[in-house]
């Protein structure tokens, strides 16, 4: 669907709604045609973005300044102080119908746009932020990551206060994450090196979602299944909010009694999720089963439906990966490269071998987030990789060929098969990779 076709169909529906009630056959026909085109466009080409630009209308990369249909839409956006919005692939006909009704009746306002959509259970449309990022989208991965982290943090606060959170913001966060994994998969994955030790449960949940969705995309999951996977991973450890914080923060091994308490968190998390609105059974399965292990010798002893098992097994791989790359009081963190090697050792018993292999193949021999020494003796951090050839990487050079820390780091494109001498231990050099992303 071209931008012009979308504009004409969208405007035709708006015009018809001014003449006839929403349930009129003509409006229903126009709505169905618009949804069919949007569904095809967003699934094949990614989200459709519509925004104001110097008083004109920008649809994806096409600018409409004098088009009559564009002027009507610009007027609606300006009247409601909406800078722009993005339509994602998970949009349903009901969501589109509800959105059109709210949009044309001026019930959506710019500063409350996302909250109003979430309250209306419209999860596949959200506002566009037109400031704060560079033109090439350099800051987009971090912005998306931080939004997901804020979403999970807010969810946790509501639970701790005895409230029942809504699931809509989680789905919006996951939709944005899915698009970022399409646009800049390795740069987004690199952010899993971020570890917030004060709110470990929250940052861990976002990291697990990023890793799991990376595996899911590599395995060709549909948009719906990817959303179920992402939401389940964001929520997988929320049951820990019901566990004594002294157990969660204990620096050493847990006692038998403490471990028994910890083992309750999957079922406690499922209880939290069941009280929320519109939670898919697959999400509940992920929360309940992420410690079951591939051999099903883990905990708790719950039965998994066959169609939910793949998502649970993917979450388990992601959960272990993030745990391995996290500093513990009793264990130093593994590098991304070391973590992949450990995952391979667990494949076939604790972890599903197919999903471990998918992650290893996606990340390559020197994964993003690995500190490396180049053949010229410079030291740098792999911060991005070519999505078509993960051997080609972008390295942020931190130390020169004499081992001196650079005053200003710089980035260099390399071929890891030719330019890398090997991996370097960041702890030995006092380097925190997350500080250089």
TrEMBL record:
<feature type="domain" description="HD-GYP">
    <location>
        <begin position="179"/>
        <end position="375"/>
    </location>
</feature>
<protein>
    <submittedName>
        <fullName>Metal dependent phosphohydrolase</fullName>
    </submittedName>
</protein>
<dbReference type="InterPro" id="IPR003607">
    <property type="entry name" value="HD/PDEase_dom"/>
</dbReference>
<dbReference type="InterPro" id="IPR037522">
    <property type="entry name" value="HD_GYP_dom"/>
</dbReference>
<dbReference type="Pfam" id="PF13487">
    <property type="entry name" value="HD_5"/>
</dbReference>
<keyword id="KW-0378">Hydrolase</keyword>
<dbReference type="GO" id="GO:0016787">
    <property type="term" value="F:hydrolase activity"/>
</dbReference>
